[in-house]
Amino acid sequence: MTAEVTAPSLIPTLPGSTYVDEAVFRAEQERIFEQMWFCAIRSADLDKAGAWRTVQVGRESVLISRTRKGAIRAFYNICRHRGVKLCMEEQGEAARSFQCPYHAWTYDFEGKLIAAPNLTKMPDIDRDEYGLAKVHIREYLGYVWVCLAEEPPSFEEDVMGAIEERLGDVHAIDGYDVANLSLGRRIKYDVKANWKLIIENFMECYHCATIHPELTEVLPEFADGLAAQYFVGHGAEFGEDIKGFTVDGSEGLDVIPGVAEDQDRRYYAITIKPTVFVNLVPDHVIIHRMFPLAADRTIVECDWLYLPSVVESGKDVSASVELFHRVNQQDFDACERCQPAMGSRVYANGGVLVPSEHHIGAFHDWIQEKVGDTVPAH
Ligand code: FES
Ligand SMILES: [Fe+2]
Questions:
Q1: Residue 136, strand partner residues
Q2: The predicted structure's pLDDT at residue 226
Q3: What is the number of other CB atoms lying within 10 angstroms of the CB of residue 283?
Q4: Structural domains for the chain
Q5: Among 86, 98, 100, which is best to mutate for testing ligand 1, by the most ligand atoms less than 8 A from CB?
Q6: Which tens digits make up the pLDDT trace of 139-184?
Q7: What gap in Å lies between CA 135 and CA 131, rounded to an integer?
Q8: Is 101 in the pocket of ligand 1 (CB under 6 A)?
Q9: Which residues fall within 8 angstroms of residue 344, CB to CB, at 6 or more apart?
Q10: Angle at 141 (CA atoms; ends 188, 328), nearest 5 degrees
Q11: β-strand 98-99 against 284-294: which pairing, if any?
């Protein structure tokens, strides 16, 4: 008789200290956020030459702006003279150039040093060398992705690869034409939780039946606790009497024309490490960008994107926005309720994952690989 070998139902999570320890967060900043492709802003947020935004990437402030020729450039938001933070606000519009508020060194939209008090008396200053320090950028899905690494990792493997891994084909997202959709609503959430808790929560649906009554009404299979991201290529199907992806199952907005027949009436969720979630439904796309600010604080910006004709016509998108806004609040509340326990002695060895959460173990392995050496022993 051969004994049947069965996998254990429960596998461990990361130790609690991984979510609270400052040294771990510092290592994540250095080795993850400052090394990988990081989704910063929506390209369309820079609607004219001189429009700029600042974002926090790891420990660095990054300034992203549009040039006169319409290109997008990203720089470290630091004056090359004595290091003052060049742009203090989150967004603005420069008329002709960026002028440092300290001694008035002035840079053009390509980052070149073009003026400074007495500059002509210092002819040996190389204006390119003392221009703003550049940051690598890529535009994809209508977003500006920046990378602070000197040699960026492969965008195709890391970012597009995540889409391929989830949908089975990187081109399965093309029909949603995400880059050409328009912003219908943006909501910013200030979440008092570690960024990894937010990712783990997004990756599983074991909690859906408990905390997401509206979502499980629209996507009945979520009530079974099966993760939307578990099966390659699978999208959760709308319930039979559900007309659209809205808070009450009422009719949604105009369907994006390129959405394939087998994608219609389905919801797909994709996690792009380290900080992006993409949600696809037939009439809109929801994109979450996270900005981890501390071990216990993460800003999440969530964009609801619709066909330009829907946004321009002023159609009411509120029932559509409300569904995932509630999901966000329910999820982030749950994450905030977990965060304080991460430092508890009871959680020193972490918690456990049930079988429908086991795929989160791969995320934990990845974290271990990146920063495991900094997790304090207990
Ligand atoms: S620090 Fe910017 S001009 Fe001096
Ligand atoms: Fe959730």
A1: 147
A2: 72
A3: 20
A4: 1-34+169-373 (3.90.380.10), 37-152 (2.102.10.10)
A5: 100
A6: 999 999 999 999 999 999 999 999 999 999 999 999 999 999 999 9
A7: 12
A8: no
A9: 16
A10: 30
A11: unpaired
